Each structure stands twice: as C-alpha cells, then as structure tokens.
DNA sequence: TTAAGTGCAAATTATTTGCAGTAAG
DNA sequence: CTTACTGCAAATAATTTGCACTTAA
C-alpha cells in the first residue's frame, strides 16, 4: 500500500490524461522514477532538474506541479505560509514538519486513528483532511 | 473551556508582557473585545480597524499579529499557501476550511479523538498539531 | 496543422524591513 | 529621557501570467 502503481513515467502521465512532453517526462522521472514517494517544493524540484540531463525552466516547474496536482497525480500540502510542498503520495496521511529546517516528511500512519472526525456541515463534503505534526528540535 | 480568560484588552496584553500601545489596544479590542474567538487575516483585521475609531496601518497590523503570535496570544494557522490566518483560540483544535470562500472556522472538537498520534522522532518534540478539514460546497 | 505546452521576463500578492518620527515607562 | 512602537514606502519572496515560440497528436 506504499508502492506507486504505474509502470513508467509515460504511464503515470497517461493515467491522468496528460500529454507526455519532454519536460513533464523529465519531472515525472525525478518525482516517481524510482518508485519512492517524495516531498518536493518548486525550488527543490527545479534544482534537481538542473542537475539532470533534461533542463526545465522554473516557470514550467511551477506550472507542471500545479497541473499534476489538479490532475490528482500529486497532493499539495500547505505547512508554511511561504512555500508549497507537493507529495507523490496522494492518500490522506499525516506529516511531520521540522520547523527549523522546514523539511516535510511522512509520519508513521499506522498508529494514527482519527476517531469521530467532525462531519461536514450542511451543503458541504470533505475534500481532504490535512494532519501536520510540527516538530521542534530538542 | 471555550471562554477567553482575561478581563480586558490591557489585561490580555499584560498577560503576555506586551506594552499596551494605542494600536495594540485597538487591535486587541477587535480580536477579543467581545469574548468571542475569531479567525482573522492581516487584511481582514486591517479592514475591521479601518471601520473603527482607532485606525492602524497595514504594516502595523502585520507586525502586531506576528508579535501576538510569538507571545502566545494568537495561534497562526496555515491553510493556504497564500494568506496566513490567526486564531484567538490558541489550543489544539481542528478547523474547517472552505475551499471556495477561503473561510476558516472551528470544527466541533468534541468528536475528534486522535488516537495513537505518532510519537516525535528522536531528538524532537511536538510543537503543535494542525488538523485542517477542507470542505467543498456540494 | 493546430491546440496545448514551454520559457522568459514582467506582473502580482502577501509579507517584511529600513528608517524617521512618536509615544510609553 | 530613552527605548520600543508605528507608519510609510521600498524591498523581498513565492508564484502566476502574457505572449511569442515549440512540439505532440
């Protein structure tokens, strides 16, 4: 239940009906190429692309992260007013956020059981539930 | 347990060791003057002050919200990469966030029971836990 | 061939900061 | 008096957008 279910980057894009352009494939490779889940920011992904064969502009990184999120391939996590984080694991799961280094990581979800989650008010449904556990270095 | 425990704005500031300046008193009045908890953004508080007797500049509203938060009088809630929200209720409690109107409100906390919250990793302690339930209008 | 995607630079938005003036202790 | 606070305008930081160019279908 922790594995990414797609055979390759093109398949990942196709599963969301997105055109496999050179840039998108390059970013997809950096995001899910090794089958591991990861958390990126526009800046961190941009830097990763700078160190790779296929260069992608910062504006395109921003646009692509947005497109991927809207297509359901990524999940945007808001932890910090400034930067936006994107998670390749799109399921509801809790996160640890290191306040000093501003690093985001998965928190062990097995333990977490949210009992009696408040029901959505009249005329609304729950879109998603974000649980962010902020950590302070001791 | 839902009431604000201070007699007046000056007392609220004093409880955090903050100097009761005219502007701070005015903002404190808008924030906790009626004993109700509320959620504000810099912009919304600025507008409220514009409609009140005591005018406060936007920069001072920003600085004051920051100072109040650092002093523990307010709790900053990050729901939306763009804007920052501040809650006069500084305890750990869940929030509803309306995605369309970008409105933040308290969620009924009685029901919510987070069982088996992941323990903080070695060398860290939990600073706070944010639970944001995002709502979509149906 | 043609609509969608990309890249640059300029625009936007929320927030912070420098600094001269003002007020609290 | 003296140091902290305020307000303005300018600076910053993350992100978006306009538009000419490129590319996938």
Model description:
The structure is a homodimer of 138-residue chains. With 138 residues, chain A is an alpha+beta fold. The first copy, chain A, has 4 helices and 7 strands, in the order ααβααββββββ. Chain A has helices at 9-14, 22-32, 42-50, 58-70, and strands at residues 39-40, 75-77, 85-87, 95-98, 103-106, 113-115, 124-137. In chain A, the strands form 2 sheets. In chain A, strands 1-3-2 form a 3-stranded antiparallel β-sheet. Chain A is globular. At the A-B interface, β6 and β7 of A face β6 and β7 of B. β6 of chain A pairs antiparallel with β6 (113-115) of chain B. The structure holds a DNA duplex (25 and 25 nucleotides).
At a glance:
The structure is a homodimer of 138-residue chains. Chain A has helices spanning 9-14, 22-32, 42-50, 58-70; strands at residues 39-40, 75-77, 85-87, 95-98, 103-106, 113-115, 124-137.
């Amino acid at each position: 239940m922790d594995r990414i279910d797609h055979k390759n980057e093109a398949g990942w894009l196709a599963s969301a009906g997105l055109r496999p352009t050179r840039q998108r494939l390059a970013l997809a490779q950096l995001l899910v190429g090794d089958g591991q889940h990861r958390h990126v920011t526009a800046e961190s992904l941009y830097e990763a692309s700078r160190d790779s064969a296929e260069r992608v502009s910062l504006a395109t990184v921003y646009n692509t992260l947005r497109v991927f999120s809207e297509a359901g391939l990524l999940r945007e996590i808001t932890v910090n007013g400034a930067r936006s984080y994107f998670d390749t694991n799109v399921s509801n799961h809790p996160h640890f956020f290191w306040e000093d280094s501003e690093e985001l990581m998965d928190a062990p979800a097995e333990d977490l059981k949210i009992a009696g989650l408040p029901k959505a008010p009249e005329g609304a449904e729950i879109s998603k539930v974000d649980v962010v556990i902020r950590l302070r270095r001791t």
